[in-house]
Design goal:
Blueprint lengths: L5 H7 L6 E4 L3 E5 L7 E7 L14 H17 L7 E4 L15 E5 L8
Antiparallel strand pairs: 1-2, 2-3, 3-5, 4-5
């Protein structure tokens, strides 16, 4: 945990969130500024800042994040109609919190990514 990280504080329970899923490796919660009817963030419990700071020991964790997002999409009824998984990296991508996280968005037709 990094003391000044927003997502670390959410994982620790210091900041409230609408939790969707949790296990020993990841936590998923509702995005507070959703860009789609279904917008859930999946974050590692352990602080990883960027994909570039991850290494081969994190491969299973990153795959687990995607599988958890798929499970949430199924539970929320958007798996069949379609959903998007996004990992933003760095300021030009729009990454607002420097803690690796995956966005699962769906529930409406999503436009193309530029």
């Amino acid at each position: 945990m990094t003391a000044d990280c927003l997502f670390c504080k959410i994982v620790a329970g210091d900041i409230p969130s609408t939790e969707v899923y949790r296990d020993d490796r990841v936590m998923a919660f509702e995005d507070i500024s959703p860009s789609a009817p279904q917008h859930v963030l999946v974050v590692p419990v352990a602080h990883i800042t960027f994909l570039r700071t991850a290494d081969e020991s994190h491969e299973s964790l990153i795959g687990h994040m995607a599988l958890v997002a798929d499970r949430i999409a199924a539970e929320r009824g958007v798996q069949s109609s379609g959903f998007r998984l996004t990992i933003n990296q760095g300021p030009d991508s729009g990454q607002a919190v420097d803690h690796l996280h995956l966005h699962m968005t769906g529930g409406r037709k999503l436009g193309p990514i530029a």
